[in-house]
Amino acid sequence: MTTAAAYAAPSAKAPLERTTVERRPVGEYDVRIDIKYAGICHSDIHQAHDGWGGSQFPMVPGHEIAGVVAEVGAKVTKYAVGDRVGVGCFVDSCRECEYCLQGLEQYCVEGNTQTYNDRDRNGEPTYGGYSSHIVVDENYVLRIPDGLSLDVAAPLLCAGITTYSPLKHWNAGPGKKVAVIGLGGLGHMAVKIAHALGAEVTVLSQSLRKKDDGLRLGADHYYATSDPKTFEELAGTFDLILSTVSAPLDFGGYLALLKTDGALVNVGAPEEPVSLNLFSLIGGRKTLAGSLIGGIAETQEMLDFCAEHGLGAEIELISADRINEAYERVLASDVRYRFVIDTSTI
């Protein structure tokens, strides 16, 4: 075992504090990664606050991890010491079910092993990226292309793949009109990726406060959802709407913005239940769907795509002693657009 410096939540809603955690020895197929940067995802806050239920404490959050390989096991073939790598939202899966065999490990029938707030196959707790290093099986490590700096690449391991996967699955591209609800950590990457895929992109945000940013990031149009005229003007417009927000929506109102056969896909996960009048789906043969991150192969595809198109996250780099402040600012929507921890400060 090795000891890693970390920041952990000792209990639900308690401030995170500096501590140490134990990492397993490097096994035959393991990679030890010296973590350089860790993104702060809204999911970290949901789980550290036990907003979704089932949280395990003490908790070291962080599933947007970028770093450098420091050690490899004897049978590792994919990575070598010095490689630039990343770790996303899970670090293992059953590897045998129909979904794992299709490269859809995020939908593993047995449940994948989450990077933090979970138990590994040996029953030991998993600890995430707010830490000095991590040990991960080589099959669940991603290669970060040279065209991406590690700090702006870290958020791609969640925010990037969470938006890339549904945009690809629902065929965002030339000739398609795509709307993104919310211009935050997820939404800003959705805009960048949808634009790079060739779609016509519209941002739907509560206000026009971030309009200049949205247009700069690749949006063609920007509307305030607080204005009722927006829903009148855009009725029946979109092939695909991607909701990135973590608050309940008026699904009837947003579904009315879809064309016949359009899809509204949720990647934000509110803590509260939502309601839906099914007639808002039936009338236009519309789809209300969800999407969960991506598999390992698709995540690598996303990283390569982002490097090819120069798509890093828009970040605010912070020291570890500002994590609790960052959490408060995320909840207040006061970040443009992703906090990233310089883990050398842990």
From TrEMBL:
Signal peptide: none annotated. It comes from the Bacteria. Its EC number is 1.1.1.2. Gene3D superfamilies: Medium-chain alcohol dehydrogenases, catalytic domain (3.90.180.10), NAD(P)-binding Rossmann-like Domain (3.40.50.720). SUPFAM superfamilies: GroES-like, NAD(P)-binding Rossmann-fold domains. GO terms for molecular function: alcohol dehydrogenase (NADP+) activity; zinc ion binding. Its cofactor is Zn(2+). It catalyses: a primary alcohol + NADP(+) = an aldehyde + NADPH + H(+). PANTHER family: ALDEHYDE REDUCTASE. This is alcohol dehydrogenase (NADP(+)). It comes from Streptantibioticus cattleyicolor (strain ATCC 35852 / DSM 46488 / JCM 4925 / NBRC 14057 / NRRL 8057).
